[in-house]
């Protein structure tokens, strides 16, 4: 199979053309598909990796699962890329989109909720009007994908009542089974040549064997993972052990609703539910919290850090007693109906998980386990206790094995490692165990040396200095004023994000420099902030967007909309980051350098990911500033700089000013 410069894929589609890098990747994918290989391919920005794996897959005619890290890419593949490649090559394909069951409306539960049989509060006029609106939408939507339901966000309290879980679904005994949207989506997937899934679904399949993908989907000859870098962390958390408030509250809801429905008067259902609800909320109240952000807390011995030990022990027992009582009550009536038996199995399982997860662990220095444990608490009070997989690589290998007799595997992303062996990624998933493993790095086709400059100021305060954010804000205000905005500041913490945004607003309010709009994470959703940024660049005064976390990837501002990208500090995981700790523990056990494996590699990958926001097309021009002197003074600075594409170095503030003036005048 050859990809030639004047072939079908060379024709511009959606404004994009193929390039040598894309053809190199397509050839490698084609070769992997026909020789049953495992291919990990890192494709830099602009390679066009989606087409580079879809085209050869289509030409080999293999049945495939294509898995993405996000639902956004899942939908983009299904709705845009697959039809476009199919049309360009003139080869039809039956593709289907499949998400986890909680993404689809459950007609049965919706009907029960509307009838007031689930104790949802259907008597509340606002609640019943919302359920009525959902009912009208559901009756017209053959797909039933809740992401298409206007006005329903991911955290809506309505969701548990209008969607199903593996445990509460009645399956073949359900009166709505013949029109069920979950089973309809699975049926369509069964008949497809390609099924577009997501990593969560793939990994969950490993744990939920009764809903494992091989049972749901047609046999796949090939599995392709896009955004594959996300598999490493997802595997460490999802293939470990966890229990959270959503599960416990779901059980409480069902005790309250299904208990009286199927075994009225036999157990004190309302009381059992109330006790479990109260214990769950007590955990939430004890955990450290912070307005607007998720707080991750590690363990110190048997207690999450910052939590009073005696209070924690008491609450831990409250949850255990609530689960014990629920399990005992359900055991007594389990024979009466299948849903009660399913609830009983779940209550016993979660009770055992709770005991295992909450057991006392020796402190770091004394322990020999390779797992780490932490608890996440979200601003809305939900929480989850997680224990990483002791060997995430082994767990992922088991997941690959359980996918059935797949012939070839392709893993791709813009960021898979910092060496040619892609060792961070390959080691993280245990892929080195495959004799047919191939790794490939394809650099971005963009001419970064000509298109981008890199400036590492040597006069910034040390990153740990309180004044660092203030000094950086002053510099950013001056730089952005030259460009009239067009500036994105990526920070490594929400605290720094707030400090820099506040300092910038004060500077512009005092009119010390040309006034620009300052947008900051927390002012709105990611989508709305990016829309405001674009609007300000097109018709407003110009803007500076200051953001952290999710803005380090998935932000695409091509052209001269973004000309200055500032990274405040090297993105090392915090010393308490549980996943970095887990990786460091495993590295130490293997005799490797724990700091290098747990922290430096992670920082290099995050830096690459963040820096990739600047140059998005062959005509983009811009400056990247990394305001962290450690790049110049520490031994790890060299390897971190090498992880970035080659850019022209700006050596001092004069160089920087000249570069900005050139950028401003080139528009
Ligand atoms: S089969 Fe399950 S998911 Fe489908 S409508 Fe019935 S309970 Fe809901």
TrEMBL record:
Pfam families: DEAD_2 (PF06733), Helicase_C_2 (PF13307). SUPFAM superfamilies: P-loop containing nucleoside triphosphate hydrolases (SSF52540). SMART domains: HELICc2. Keywords: ATP-binding, DNA-binding, Helicase, Hydrolase, Iron, Iron-sulfur, Isomerase, Metal-binding, Nucleotide-binding. The keyword DNA-binding applies. The keyword Iron applies. InterPro entries: ATP-dep_Helicase_C, DinG/Rad3-like, Helic_SF1/SF2_ATP-bd_DinG/Rad3, P-loop_NTPase, RAD3-like_helicase_DEAD. GO terms for molecular function: ATP binding; DNA binding; DNA helicase activity; hydrolase activity, acting on acid anhydrides, in phosphorus-containing anhydrides; iron-sulfur cluster binding; metal ion binding. It comes from the Bacteria. Residues 8-289 form the Helicase ATP-binding domain. GO terms for biological process: DNA repair. Belongs to the helicase family. DinG subfamily. This is Helicase ATP-binding domain-containing protein. It comes from Hydrogenophaga crassostreae.
